[in-house]
Amino acid sequence: MILTAPERRRAISGGAFSLGSIALFVGIAVLVLLSAGIESGGDTSLTDPYLLRILRFTLLQAVLSTLLSIVLAIPVARALARQPRFPGRLWLIRLMAVPMGLPVLIGALGLLGIWGRQGLINQALSALGLSQPVSIYGLAGILLAHVFFNMPLACRLMLAGLERVPAEYWLVAGGLGMQPISVFRFIEWPILRGLVPGIAGLIFMLCATSFTLVLILGGGPAATTLEVAIYQALRFDFDPGRAVMLSLLQIVVTLLVLSVMTLFRAPDDHGLTAGRALRRIDGQGMAARCIDAALLAAATLFLGMPLAAVVVTGLKANLFKLVSQPIFLQAAITSLAIALAAGLLAVLTSFAIIRARSVISADRRKSLGLHGLAIALGASSSLILLVPPIVLATGWFLALRPLGDPSRFAAVLIIVINALMALPFVIRVIEPAYTVHVSRTGRLAASLGLHGIARLRMVDWPGLRKPLFTALSFAMALSLGDLGAVALFGSDSLMTLPWLVYSKLGSYRTNDADGYALILGLVCFLLTIAGTAGQGVPDDESRRND
Question: CB–CB of 151/73 below 8 Å?
Fold first, then answer.
């Protein structure tokens, strides 16, 4: 990357400022929690049976959710890999991407529509004369919901690994006449074995820090995780001491998980291939096709039925009446304003971090201080994952109490917390595009003497506009569907769409909640479509290659 000395200084300063701001915001929350924990005698509180029970259940549900997600994802991923050509395969893979971008609250409502007391499954069981219907609340419901959200993620990651198996492997397997069990043992399992630890660590982290699903489906004190207990300690009991100890326990748990995850590096693909196109030798018989079809049909129903339930139950509500109510207009305006501000903040902060890392990495004679700054910038997203949203909100809630009512600062805190939570995802969207863009245009822009605003207007903006809009739309969708930080500060004066849906559920107005959930889902879906508009359309060169 060829920049002038002032541009280089500005880029590094921007990255350092962003990193410092993140560290300051997270650090203040953590220091306040530590200080409050010491003042409240936190050492003795660690032996509280309630805290130990909450910690035990948090780890138990995370372990079970991870195991179920991995175990169920393996056969589905193998079925997709064995059957590369069947009608609807592409749409099934796209369906598996929906839960990952779906607001958790909407997914929970969809699961209630299928597995709840009045859901489709229990209605069918009642028609068969069974008096004990399925209960989605408690540990079983939490596991079901976590599998719904995390099994598709694991399946897509495994499928990507299986599809990278060199074609020569299948040529050799065909020549040796391998049976399906041998194919799995010698070809597929070595690939999956390298992927499973990283996937399992990611899913465990997501389940250990789960909030919305447990809040809705927990079903009582016996099925409560650390984050939900923090929320209850401040929102209902107003017990800051207990909230502090729970928050510190949550930080310790996430720190341990992140530390273990660093031990498992992404597997290197050392397979040599000449780029041949060759079909797999397994999955071609009638029995194998039937088994794969049954697995894929079950996965489609498991994922598609809750999504269809959200649409069907939402359409039963009087949507025109709901959208005309003042409380909806207030919530919609507030949510969109917070989402836009959080999205812009996430994109700007991510761009500053990426640009600084790019400039530092291009300097072959960088000092020890710059090398340390580059490492710190690369670890900035891990710092954010270390402290979940509800813990950040708790720390700042306690920090702002001496200044009066903390809810006065709620909007700003929610914007910053949502931006930080979106930061790791936004960086992953922008950084590859930025790296390619700089490698293609850096020397040309320097040779033309384009710097500053002129370069931004004529080179950078046209080249990075699409990934920036994609990142912005994704960050806005994440912020729109967030209930973590809003749950602690939400009130009649600060009403967002997720908080409105949750409030309607709490007052047993499920029809209105279903309608609002459908509207929220449509808004998030439109944001995703807008962010990816124009992508996936092959250019002239790719058409020629095809």
Answer: yes
Lowest mean pLDDT among 107-111, 331-335, 372-376: 372-376
Amino acid letter, residue 414: I
Q: How confident is the model at residue 261 (pLDDT cuts 50, 70, 90)?
A: confident
What CA–CA distance (Å, rounded) separates 422 from 225? 23
Cα 293 from Cα 340, distance rounded (Å) = 43
User: Nearest Cα to 10, choosing from 352, 292, 252, 243?
Assistant: 352
Angle, helices 461-480 vs 326-362, to 10°: value is: 130
For 440, 509, 524, the CA distances from 504, given in Å and listed in that order, are 52, 5, 20
Half-sphere exposure of 237 (CA within 13 A, CB side): 11
Tokens at 18, concatenated: 């962003």
| Rounded Cα distance, 546 and 536, in Å | 14
Phi–psi pair at 218, nearest 5 degrees = -60, -45
Token pair listed for 234:
């401040």
Contact between 269 and 53 (Cβ < 8 Å):
no
State how far the Cα of 105 lies from the Cα of 114, in Å rounded to an integer.
Answer: 15
Distance CA 274, CA 270 (A): 13
Smallest CA-to-CA distance from 161 within 77, 103, 242 is with 77
507: tokens are 């007052």
Report the chain's terminal Cα–Cα distance, integer Å.
Answer: 32
* Nearest Cα to Cα of residue 495 among 337, 328, 339: 328
Amino acid, single-letter form, for residue 28: I
Task: Write the single-letter amino acid at 193.
Answer: R
Residue 4 predicted with pLDDT over 70:
no
- Give 164's Cβ-side CA count (13 Å radius): 16
- Distance CA(511)–CA(314), nearest Å, equals 8
Q: Would you give the distance in Å from CA 229 to the centre of its chain?
A: 22
Helices (H), 401-409: none
Q: Which residues of 423-448 are buried (b: 16+ CB within 10 A; e: fewer)?
A: bbbbbebbbebbeebbeebbeebeee
Task: Give the confidence band of 541 by pLDDT, cuts at 50, 70, 90.
Answer: very low
**314 neighbors 515 (Cβ within 8 angstroms):** yes
Q: How far apart are CA 62 and CA 411, in angstroms?
A: 31
Of 298, 328, 380, whose CA–CA distance to 20 is shortest?
A: 380
Q: pLDDT tens for residues 297-347? A: 999 999 999 999 999 999 988 888 898 999 999 999 999 999 999 999 999
Q: Mean pLDDT throughout 377-405?
A: 82
Contact status, residue 267 vs residue 160, Cβ threshold 8 Å: no
d(CA 380, CA 336): 26
Residues 373-377: contacts with CB under 8 Å, at least 24 apart: 373/12, 373/15, 373/16, 373/19, 376/19, 377/15, 377/19, 377/353
Written as six digits, the tokens of 236 are 């209902």
Q: Which residue has the tokens 């009130």?
A: 491
Matching residue, tokens 């702002």: 400
